[in-house]
Specification:
The complex is a heterodimer of chains A (157) and B (266). With 157 residues, chain A is α/β, with parallel strands linked by helices. Chain A contains 5 helices and 4 strands; from the N terminus they run βαβαβαβαα. Chain A has one domain: Rossmann fold (3-Layer(aba) Sandwich). In chain A, 48% of the residues are buried. By secondary structure, chain B is α/β, with parallel strands linked by helices. In chain B, strands 1, 2, 3, 4, 5 and 6 form a 6-stranded mixed sheet that branches. The chains are: A alpha/beta (157), B alpha/beta (266).
Chain lengths: 157, 266
């Protein structure tokens, strides 16, 4: 991801848990924004794995569940600001879906502190670094998402 | 012969419809019946024991083959018919409804437009018992709700009765049968069960007609209808009835308004 040449931030002293954060980002804004973070030589924590999508409208809510099931401790979903979508309406449709999806997740008892939505434009390299740092710190404090990961191995000895 | 049976008989005799879909007495409760001749109209009953959403049958090829249908329709069945029309699954005058309310008069509604007009005068909300239960769950903390659903969904055997009984689950190929990639594990398993029920709620958000048939169909007695009722309520609270993109019923998740508001996107 990106073209960052900065050395990764070292592990915090005394901490052994490093969260895995999966970021679903759109090609046109946030991916380019994250690229800018790198070319601007801005440091941020290396816990994030970025997955590029054509548009936030393509980010099926199932993918977010899959990320948790496969061991992500936190998920970031980010794309173009409203009115900036490359495909005009993809982010508006995505926003509507996220509004309901968050409600449904909370209703089924899933910890929303592990799921972060953001708008990061191609010019907001600094915001991307801030976002990743903030989410990584929060999820590190929460610890591994064992409640969800345990579901995947439930009943398997 | 009561009013319902009389009206069904007249429709069949006149050839206006070829089949009347309703409920009849069965062993241990009511069962669906497809009345195809006037002589059989006496089988039809309607009371509080008739809980199945009969609109589920309307799109099925084997039912369409019988000819034009009239459905004995309680308010949720009427809502399902209107929503199916909005989703281009039913034509305006393709089916008729014999609108019933327990203890009330039977009204013959020949078009979806007429059904929509009739529905405007009826309240659209889930039964009081379900509202109470939704309130009880809403008052819980997130870990309490996780424990509640873990216990409930642990019993799910993935028979898909909830899907089969739902008038809005009409896709010929469901995500659940999609195995390249395998989106949701098919076995009765903690992860797959949770994912299946979340997907079901999301796919019905903004389309659920609040009949509660999915929950009543569950052979394990899991209150799965609370998930779809909750998703539907979430849509209504955030976007208004049916998404409110226009005066017409739409699928709220396939449309938007620029002014849709939230507070969680950073």
């Amino acid at each position: 991801m990106g073209t960052s040449v900065t050395t990764p931030t070292p592990l915090k002293e005394g901490s052994t848990f490093e969260p895995k954060i999966t970021a679903f980002v759109c090609n046109w804004c946030t991916y380019a924004g994250a690229d800018l973070t790198g070319t601007s030589r801005i440091r941020y924590q290396p816990n994030v794995r970025v997955i590029r999508f054509p548009c936030t409208g393509r980010i099926d809510f199932m993918l977010i569940l899959k990320a948790f099931a496969h061991g992500s401790d936190g998920v970031i979903v980010s794309g173009c600001h409203p009115n900036d979508c490359h495909y005009t309406t993809g982010n508006y449709l995505a926003r509507r879906r996220w509004i309901v999806f968050r409600d449904v997740l909370e209703f089924t008892g899933i910890d929303l502190r592990r799921l972060t939505f953001a708008w990061v434009s191609a010019a907001e390299g600094a915001k991307w670094a801030e976002l990743v740092d903030e989410v990584t710190d929060r999820v590190r404090a929460l610890g591994p998402y064992r409640e969800y990961q345990a579901l995947a191995s439930a009943g398997i000895e | 012969m009561d009013e319902l049976q009389e009206k069904a008989k007249q429709l069949l005799e006149a050839g206006t419809v070829q089949v009347v879909i309703g409920h009849a007495a069965g062993r241990g409760g009511r069962r669906p019946v497809f009345v195809r001749s006037p002589a059989q109209a006496g089988k039809l009953v309607h009371d509080d024991g008739c809980w199945q959403n009969l609109a589920t049958y309307l799109g099925k090829p084997e039912v369409r083959k019988l000819g034009r249908a009239a459905v004995v329709a309680s308010p949720p069945v009427l809502r399902a018919m209107v929503q199916l029309g909005a989703e281009r699954q039913l034509g305006n005058d393709e089916v008729m409804a014999l609108a019933v309310v327990t203890g009330g008069p039977v009204r013959t509604l020949a078009t979806l437009a007429a059904i929509e007009g009739h529905l405007a005068s009826l309240p659209d909300e889930p039964p009081a018992a379900d509202r109470t239960e939704l309130g009880r769950l809403a008052a819980m903390t997130v870990p309490e709700r996780r424990a509640f659903w873990a216990e409930q969904l642990d019993r799910c055997v993935r028979c898909y009765a909830c899907r089969a009984s739902c008038p809005m689950c009409y896709c010929e190929r469901c995500t659940m049968e999609c195995n390249r990639p395998q989106w949701v594990p098919v076995a009765s398993h903690a992860l797959g069960n949770l994912e299946y029920h979340i997907v079901r709620a999301m796919h019905l958000a903004g389309r659920c007609v609040q009949c509660g048939t999915c929950g009543k169909s569950c052979p394990l007695g899991i209150p799965v209808h609370l998930l779809t009722l909750f998703a539907e309520r979430s849509v209504q609270q955030h976007f208004g009835q049916g998404g409110k993109a226009s005066g017409k019923p739409v699928f709220a998740m396939s449309t938007f308004r620029p002014e849709d508001s939230e507070t969680f996107i950073r």
